[in-house]
Design goal:
The complex is a heterodimer of chains A (about 300) and B (about 325). Chain A has about 300 residues and is mainly α. Chain A has 2 domains: about 35 residues, no CATH class; about 230 residues, MetI-like fold, CATH 1.10.3720. In chain A, about 75% of the residues lie in helices and about 0% in strands. Chain A has 13 helices and no strands. The two termini of chain A are about 30 Å apart. The longest helix of chain B has about 35 residues. The radius of gyration of chain B is 26 Å and the shape is globular. The chains are: A mainly alpha (about 300), B mainly alpha (about 325). At the A-B interface, helix 2, helix 4, helix 5, helix 6 and helix 7 of A face helix 2, helix 5, helix 7, helix 8 and helix 11 of B.
């Protein structure tokens, strides 16, 4: 095997003119890649071992000092905990809604108008969505509290209560993302061969049974990919919180992104913020690998 | 679940039977499901409606009229204030702060930055994607793999060093500073266009090269026009993404002359003085920023939905 690969490599002759053309085609995009992706990735890592500060040109190598500080920083651990709480509520609820929508769309009609309508919230910016709900959930004038009052419940300070801040933001993003997630799952359901579904019907499977015993298991590979995408996105919650609670009350909604920003820009601790960004990177990579393993994303039951 | 279906079966049965079609009668479970769809749709669309209703109400009518579906007191004052058409006195009297953010300027800034990024990114990424899909050069697949891998890096990781880079070059509060990180490429755009170029039959380019067309001519005269639908979809996705971006524009473009809509809207809360915010004006401003997206959705919604779906299953 290695021998053949070697021989091919020797035999293959590159067309020099084509290499030149390729270089020209690639140049602008690769300039962007090197300057705004590759370079900052390397610098991000190396900054995490320095005491770099914003607006101060000189910085010194401090070894793993930032990481040691991070492990002893209660606010960092709190930020991770709050982020995790958010991800669990957000992904949990959103996935259930998305599966239900996807299943109904497949069952009733895949009408594109319907799909587009469900997708609309996802196309709006986080800022716009946050403002819509800031108004709807307003303590004094919001329609949600009027509704709660009308069914005999007291008004809730959704954004300014320690208890409710994270669930509220999580539900806002369930609203924004459920249609998008449903669309991805719907595409997955459509790839399941009709014959399989019909076979289940012939065998006397009920609607609900068919969903749990046929559709859901066969959807697993797509489901795994969708879950990885949505979980990674969910960990990076920032915009909604920045517009609504700004991390408060106290640290109740100070998720990891918000805390990294506080450190980098409000306190100018760029080195420390970089170390936390590295930690987030590692966590995301670990979560992704774990999910792929658990859901056996690379194997299909259809084969 | 099964219980509710059975119950409604008995209820709905007699109602639907007279209108029963000869071939396929609407099943009870269908009716339950359509009801569910209706509820989910209302949940999805209500916030939009509610903000429009608020935007068209006067601030004065909001406290006394907090639940009616129509504006308590119809007024386009909110939109006038959002677009800076109301005088300071008018605005103050209507419950505005009197120092409204200049949304017309922000609207223009958003349009400029989003257009710059869309044109730059779509052009550069199409060219790069063509090289990855069609041209032969050493290390091609390895390079493509490296580019794709960078999709895994959380944006905040690159954002911190990029901020210093832009700051050191004096690009803070400039359009090109806001546009810079996404102006030339995103890994997604390259991936998206490459997927499409791979589906074009080789014969077409071969025919062109026999006719004596160089690679550049072939690409710009034949391949790119053939890809018009993919290019449009990518352009719309890029435009919307940039239009909605908040974090980076907020960091590098706080000056009002370049500040984009999202950053201006995000400022609203911190700028609101004590007391009741100008909800009507704010919701109007929100709608101003929603409208361009709705227009795009009406124009290319079909393709957009299909391509998002496609990107999911890959």
């Amino acid at each position: 095997m290695a021998v053949t690969a070697e021989t091919i490599r020797v035999k293959q002759k590159w067309d020099k003119r084509q290499i030149g053309v390729a270089a020209l085609f690639l140049a602008p995009a690769m300039l962007g890649f090197v300057v705004f992706y590759l370079r900052p990735t390397v610098i991000g890592f190396s900054n995490s071992f320095t005491d770099k500060e914003l607006l101060r040109p000189k910085s010194e190598f401090v070894g793993v000092e930032n990481y040691r500080e991070m492990f002893q920083d209660d606010v960092f651990w709190n930020a991770l905990w709050v982020t995790l709480k958010y991800v669990v509520i957000n992904i949990g609820v959103q996935t259930v809604f998305a599966i239900v929508i996807a299943w109904i769309l497949d069952r009733l009609s895949g009408s594109r108008v319907l799909r587009t309508l469900f997708l609309t919230p996802w196309l709006m910016s986080n800022v716009v969505v946050a403002l819509l709900f800031l108004w709807i959930l307003d303590f004094r004038l919001g329609v949600m509290n009027s509704f709660l009052n009308s069914i005999g419940l007291p008004s809730q300070p959704f954004f300014s209560s320690q208890e409710w801040a994270i669930p509220t933001v999580a539900f806002i993003n369930v609203w924004r993302h459920m249609g998008y997630t449903a669309l991805l799952l719907f595409a997955g359901i459509q790839t399941i061969p009709k014959s399989v579904k019909e076979a289940a019907l012939v065998d006397g499977c009920g609607e609900i049974q068919r969903f749990f015993k046929v559709t859901l298991p066969l959807l697993r590979p797509v489901f795994a990919v969708v879950l990885v995408i949505t979980v990674i996105g969910s960990f990076q919650i920032y915009d909604t919180i920045d517009v609504t609670t700004e991390g408060g009350p106290v640290n109740a909604s100070r998720v990891i992104y918000v805390y990294i920003f506080d450190q980098a820009f409000a306190r100018r601790n760029f080195g420390y913020a970089s170390a936390m960004a590295v930690a987030l990177f590692v966590i995301l990579a670990a979560v992704t690998v774990m999910q792929m393993r658990l859901l056996r994303a690379n194997e299909s039951d259809l084969a | 679940m099964t219980m509710t279906m059975d119950a409604s079966d008995q209820q709905m049965g007699p109602v639907t039977s007279p209108r029963r079609r000869p071939r396929r009668r609407p099943k009870t479970s269908d009716i339950v499901l359509w009801t569910l769809v209706a509820i989910l749709l209302i949940l999805t669309l209500f916030p939009f409606y509610w903000s429009l209703r608020t935007a068209l109400s006067s601030n004065r009518s909001l406290p006394t009229n907090s639940t009616s579906l129509l504006p308590g007191e119809f007024s386009i004052g909110g939109f006038e204030r959002a677009l800076g058409l109301a005088s300071t006195e008018e605005s103050l009297a209507a419950g505005g702060s009197g120092a409204e953010i200049n949304f017309l300027q922000a609207l223009m800034n958003s349009a400029i930055v989003a257009t710059m990024v869309t044109v730059g990114q779509v052009l550069c990424c199409s060219m790069a994607a063509y090289a990855f899909a069609r041209l032969r050069f050493p290390g091609r697949d390895k390079l493509f793999f490296v580019v794709l891998t960078s999709l895994m890096i959380p944006p905040i990781f690159t954002l911190l060093p990029n901020f210093i880079f832009v700051q050191q070059r004096g690009w803070l509060n400039t359009y090109h500073g806001i546009a810079a990180p996404t102006l030339l490429m995103t890994p997604f755009a390259i991936f998206f266009m490459r997927q499409f170029f791979l589906t074009i039959p080789h014969e077409i380019e071969e025919a062109a090269s026999i006719d004596g067309a160089g690679r550049f001519r072939t690409f710009f005269r034949i391949v790119l026009p053939m890809s018009a639908s993919s290019v449009t979809t990518l352009a719309v996705l890029t435009f919307i993404t940039q239009w909605n971006d908040y974090l980076w524009p907020k960091l590098v473009g706080q000056d009002e002359s370049v500040r984009v809509l999202t950053a201006s809207l995000g400022n609203f809360r911190s700028q609101t003085p004590q007391g009741t915010p100008d909800w009507s004006g704010l919701m109007a401003a929100t709608w101003v920023s929603i409208i361009p997206i709705i227009i795009l959705l009406l124009l290319v919604g079909k393709r957009l939905v299909d391509s998002i779906q496609f990107s999911g299953i890959k």
